[in-house]
Design brief:
Number of helices of chain A: 4
Oligomer: heterodimer
Radius of gyration of chain B: 20 Å
Largest sheet of chain A: 3 strands, antiparallel
Strand content of chain B: under 5%
Number of domains of chain A: 1
Number of strands of chain A: 7
Number of strands of chain B: 2
CATH topology of chain A: Alpha-Beta Plaits
Structural class of chain B: mainly alpha
Number of helices of chain B: 12
Strand order of the largest sheet of chain B: 1-2
Order of helices and strands of chain A: HEEHEEHEEHE
Radius of gyration of chain A: 25 Å
Distance between the termini of chain B: 47 Å
Order of helices and strands of chain B: HHHEEHHHHHHHHH
Shape of chain A: elongated
C-alpha cells in the first residue's frame, strides 16, 4: 500500500508536469474572422460557374446547358434548364446555354462529381466555405450568384499537389 | 461607545472584504476558463473586452435577465434558500482570515482582518461545513433523482473530508499553540508551516479540494453521470449564485491554505517587513498561486470514482492524518 501510494503520487506529479508543458504551448485555435483559416488546394467549397477569361470566347459563360452535372449528381441538387442562343445574343459559345441553373446547397454533399462530369469545366467547387443563410430558399443558389467568384478569408496551403490544375 | 473604532471601521472592512471576495469569485470564473483553456491549448474567453476581461460581467448580466423558473415539483422555500446558504457560508468563512498586519490608515490603527476571534480555526471549520448544507438542501429540495444523488454524494463526501480536515489542522494547532488564525500566522514568521508539516499540508490540500467540490473530487456535480448533480434544477440567478459561491469558495479556501500552511501575509518576513501593505500583496500573490494550483490539478487529474474516494478518505487519508497528528504530538511533547 505504501508502494502504491508512492507510485500514485509520482504518477500525479508526472501528469501535472505534462499538463504544465502544454500550458506554455501556443494555442492551436484559429481566431477565424481576424485570422484566415488554412485550406488545402483541393478543398471543395461552394460551386462557381466560370466564364472564359481569354481567347475567342472571352467573357462568355462556359456552361452550355447540357445537364450532365444534374444527371451525375448523387443527391440531385442541381437543376438545369437550357435555352437557345439566338437573335445575336450569345451567352455561351455553343448553340445552347443554361437559362436556369440552380444548386440546392442544402442537399449538396460537395462530392465534386458535377465538376468531373462537366465537359467544358464550367462548374467548379471553389473555396468559399462560409455558407449560412436565413432561409431554405436563400440556400438555393441561382445562376447569378453562382457566376460571382467568391474570395473566402483563407490561406491556401501548398501541399505540392494540383495547385492551379483544377478545372483546366 | 467609540463609533469610529467599534462601528464604522468594522463595517467598512466587512464591505470591502465582501466586495473584493465577490469580484475575486467572479474573476475566478474567468481565470479558470482562461487557465484551463491554456492547459488545453486553447485561448479561452477573449471576445468580451481585451482578453475577455468583461466575460464575468456579461455572464452576470445574462444570468440576471434569465427567466426565473421554479419547477412545480420542488420544495419551494428550501429550493430558493439553498443557494443563499452556500453563498453566505462562503462569505462568512473569510471573516476570520487575517490578510495583513495592523496598519495606520487615515489616522486610525486598523487590523487587516474582519474578525479576530480566539477560536478562529474552529469557526472556520464550522462555517465551511455549513456550506455543504446549501448543496445537500438544494439537491434534496429539487426532488429529482440526479439532484438527490448529487446531494447524497455531497453529504457522504462531507463526512469523509471534514474529519481529515480537522485532524490535519489539529497538528497545526499543536505546533502553533493557538486556534487564533492571527497567532498562527505570527507563528510562521520565520518558517511557514509547510516546512514543519509537509505531510499535514498534503493531507489538508486534498481535503480542501474535496471541501470546495473541485476536480478530482467534484462528485456532487459529476456532470457526465449526474447531469449537473445538485444544480440540475437550478437556472438563472439561482444557478449563478451557486456558481459564484463555488468560485468564491475556491478563493476563500486558497486563503485558508495560505494562512495556515504558507505563512499568510507574514512569510517571508524579508518582504512583509518592508511595508505593511507588502504583506497584503504577498498574501494575494500566494492566494493566486494556490488558485492556479487548483486549476492545474483540475486540468491534470480525472475525477475519482465515488466509492474510491470514500475508500481513499476513510482507509488511507484518515489513518495517515492520525499518524501525522501523533507524530507531531510526540515531537511537541518530547522535544
Amino acid at each position: 500500500m505504501l508502494r502504491d501510494s508512492i507510485v500514485g503520487f509520482w504518477h500525479i506529479l508526472r501528469a501535472m508536469g505534462l499538463t504544465f508543458k502544454y500550458f506554455f504551448t501556443k494555442p492551436v485555435t484559429v481566431q477565424y474572422p481576424e485570422e484566415p483559416v488554412k485550406l488545402y488546394p483541393r478543398f471543395r467549397g461552394r460551386h462557381e460557374l466560370r466564364r472564359y477569361e481569354e481567347g475567342p470566347y472571352e467573357g462568355l459563360e462556359r456552361c452550355i446547358g447540357c445537364s450532365l452535372c444534374a444527371a451525375y449528381c448523387p443527391t440531385q441538387c442541381i437543376y438545369v434548364q437550357a435555352g437557345e442562343n439566338k437573335d445575336g445574343i450569345q451567352r455561351s459559345p455553343g448553340e445552347r446555354y443554361a437559362e436556369i441553373y440552380e444548386i440546392n446547397l442544402l442537399r449538396c454533399m460537395f462530392c465534386g462529381y458535377c465538376e468531373e462530369a462537366c465537359p467544358t469545366g464550367a462548374i467548379v467547387l471553389r473555396r468559399e466555405f462560409a455558407l449560412a443563410g436565413y432561409s431554405r430558399q436563400g440556400l438555393i443558389y441561382t445562376q447569378d450568384r453562382l457566376l460571382q467568384p467568391a474570395e473566402p478569408n483563407a490561406v491556401i496551403l501548398d501541399d505540392g499537389t494540383a495547385a492551379g490544375t483544377r478545372g483546366k | 461607545m467609540d463609533w469610529v473604532a467599534d462601528f464604522w471601521i468594522p463595517l467598512i472592512k466587512a464591505v470591502v472584504v465582501v466586495l473584493v471576495l465577490l469580484l475575486g469569485g467572479a474573476y475566478m470564473t474567468w481565470g479558470e476558463r482562461k487557465i484551463c483553456a491554456r492547459f488545453q491549448v486553447r485561448y479561452g474567453p477573449n471576445r468580451a473586452g481585451p482578453f475577455g476581461i468583461l466575460q464575468p460581467l456579461a455572464d452576470a448580466v445574462k444570468a440576471i435577465f434569465k427567466e426565473e423558473i421554479v419547477p412545480n415539483h420542488v420544495d419551494k422555500i428550501i429550493y430558493v434558500m439553498a443557494p443563499g446558504i452556500s453563498f453566505a457560508a462562503v462569505l462568512i468563512t473569510f471573516a476570520v482570515i487575517p490578510f495583513g498586519p495592523e496598519v495606520d490608515l487615515f489616522g486610525q490603527r486598523v487590523g487587516l482582518w474582519v474578525g479576530d476571534i480566539e477560536v478562529g480555526l474552529l469557526f472556520l471549520l464550522a462555517i465551511a461545513a455549513l456550506g455543504s448544507y446549501g448543496i445537500v438542501l438544494g439537491g434534496w429540495s429539487s426532488n429529482n433523482k440526479y439532484s438527490l444523488l448529487g446531494a447524497l454524494r455531497a453529504a457522504a463526501q462531507m463526512i469523509s473530508y471534514e474529519l481529515i480536515l480537522g485532524i490535519s489542522l489539529l497538528a497545526v494547532v499543536l505546533l502553533a499553540g493557538s486556534l487564533n488564525l492571527r497567532e498562527i500566522v505570527d507563528f510562521q514568521g520565520t518558517w511557514p508551516l509547510l516546512v514543519l508539516q509537509p505531510l499535514g499540508f498534503l493531507i489538508f490540500l486534498i481535503a480542501i479540494l474535496a471541501e470546495s467540490n473541485r476536480s478530482p473530487f467534484d462528485l456532487p456535480e459529476t456532470e457526465n453521470e449526474l447531469v449537473s448533480g445538485f444544480m440540475t434544477e437550478y437556472g438563472g440567478i439561482k444557478f449563478a449564485l451557486y456558481f459564484i459561491a463555488e468560485y468564491t469558495a475556491m478563493v476563500v479556501n486558497s486563503a485558508i491554505v495560505v494562512t495556515i500552511f504558507l505563512g499568510g501575509w507574514k512569510w517571508p518576513a524579508l518582504i512583509s517587513d518592508l511595508h505593511p501593505l507588502a504583506g497584503v500583496g504577498l498574501f494575494l500573490a500566494k492566494v493566486l498561486f494556490v488558485l492556479f494550483l487548483y486549476v492545474w490539478i483540475r486540468a491534470s487529474i480525472p475525477r475519482v470514482r465515488f466509492d474510491k474516494f470514500m475508500r481513499f478518505s476513510w482507509k488511507f487519508m484518515l489513518p495517515l492524518a492520525f499518524v501525522n497528528l501523533l507524530a507531531t504530538a510526540a515531537v511537541v511533547a518530547f522535544l
